[in-house]
């Protein structure tokens, strides 16, 4: 990643930033001048230290974004440290359940939607007001390629990601005239711990080896390879900068061609 100044003087909050797409995004934004608060359910101390060792202006905070009060504390702390938040990246998410719908435990269904969907509503509700007053700001919601297709055994995850697109478009319409933009990215299979967890679970359900499932998934991708976290981060950065000024309410596929609509 090359350093720049597209985000000089801007303040960013990235959720789920302890690893994977979130960490790559936090690093990319910081390398281009942003002051970045990394938040995660697990204290992102190692991630913060690694970026600070590179001379980047970052700090970390342990936050459960499914807790509305904790989200309020997160923004209060970001404002205390850096000032009004200009860039919000809603990356935190989970996949707690691999069940057929007929066997879906209600508690896992509700917990998945609270982490993947309600958390984004909580952060939007807290972020959009100050952004509107300032007359500028961007939000990027991280959805998934399954926001545009179904996937067996993943009903809670799929439903939450489809709903993120509706939330993104609604938020975009509500704040467009205030100069605030809200977009979404839809990553395809990306080289993260969650992706490898998904492979293992699907392999167990089908009675197969994870390597065979991985090969099958890659065959479905026209580019024939897994996406790297930094590749998703670059698209998030584009949607967060002035170069994408005419874009709001959009859902951008970063799927290696797996999704083209």
Can you characterise this structure?
This protein is an alpha/beta fold and 261 residues long. It has one domain (11-191, 227-254): NAD(P)-binding Rossmann-like Domain (Rossmann fold, 3-Layer(aba) Sandwich), CATH 3.40.50. Helices cover 46% and strands 15% of the residues. It contains eight helices and seven strands, in the order βαβαβαβαβαβαααβ. It has helices at residues 20-31, 45-52, 68-81, 106-134, 155-175, 193-206, 210-219, 229-240; strands at residues 11-15, 35-40, 58-62, 87-90, 137-142, 180-187, 251-254. Strands 3-2-1-4-5-6-7 form a seven-stranded parallel sheet, sandwiched between helices. Helix 1 (20-31) links the parallel strand 1 and strand 2. The longest helix has 29 residues, at 106-134.
What are the defining features of this structure?
261 residues, alpha/beta, Rossmann fold, 7-stranded parallel beta sheet, 7 strands, 46% helix
